[in-house]
Write a structure and sequence with these properties.
The chain is α/β, with parallel strands linked by helices and about 160 residues long. Helix content is about 35%, strand content about 20%. The protein has a single domain (about 1-165), classed as Alpha-Beta Barrel (Aconitase, domain 4). α2 crosses α4 (about 70-75). The chain is globular, with a radius of gyration of 15 Å.
């Protein structure tokens, strides 16, 4: 699949508390998570991000707690892909399980507000602002199927339904 959108760039070690502060987890509704997403890293993020935009970061994105609220908050904002140099292992897995694309790539040449075109099948990231291409590690086909189905639960339901035919 190919996605186009604007970049919201963050640095290294963005933890799950920066993605969705724990003080807001007494209400796990998607609307609440969307409203406070990335608030401790950029308090204007949720008011500026649009459906299809990208989060781009440095190393160790999603470190900290194992809560699934972090990728759910990002997805609730309309972000379709997070691109970072590296991800915390649990965040990486949680993201695919809830249906959020994750790509590992060298993000040094990507700046805040650059426009990108990303092909999740090939891993090609075109920086339309700078007319440059970065290649991410392609996503395994099974992981891509999970995201395209809407996450692990939706994928399992789909497979069960297909098995009944």
């Amino acid at each position: 699949m190919i996605f186009k959108g604007k970049v919201f760039k963050f640095g290294d070690n963005i933890d799950t508390d920066a993605i969705i502060p724990a003080r807001y987890l007494n209400d796990s509704s998607e609307e609440n998570l969307k409203k406070h997403c990335m608030e401790d890293a950029d308090e204007t993020f949720s008011s500026k991000v649009l459906k299809g935009d990208f989060i781009v970061a440095g190393n160790n994105f999603g470190c900290g707690s194992s809560r699934e609220h972090a990728p759910i908050a990002i997805k609730s904002c309309g972000v379709t892909i997070v691109i970072a140099k590296s991800f915390a292992r649990i965040f990486y897995r949680n993201s695919f399980n809830i249906g959020l694309f994750i790509l590992s790539a060298d993000t040094d040449g990507i700046e805040n507000e650059d426009m990108l075109e990303v092909n999740t099948d090939t891993g090609e990231i075109k920086n339309l602002t700078k007319n440059k291409v970065v290649n991410a590690k392609p996503i395994p086909k099974f992981m891509s199927e999970l995201v395209n189905a809407g996450g692990l639960i939706a994928y399992a339901k789909k497979k069960i339904k297909e098995g009944k035919k």
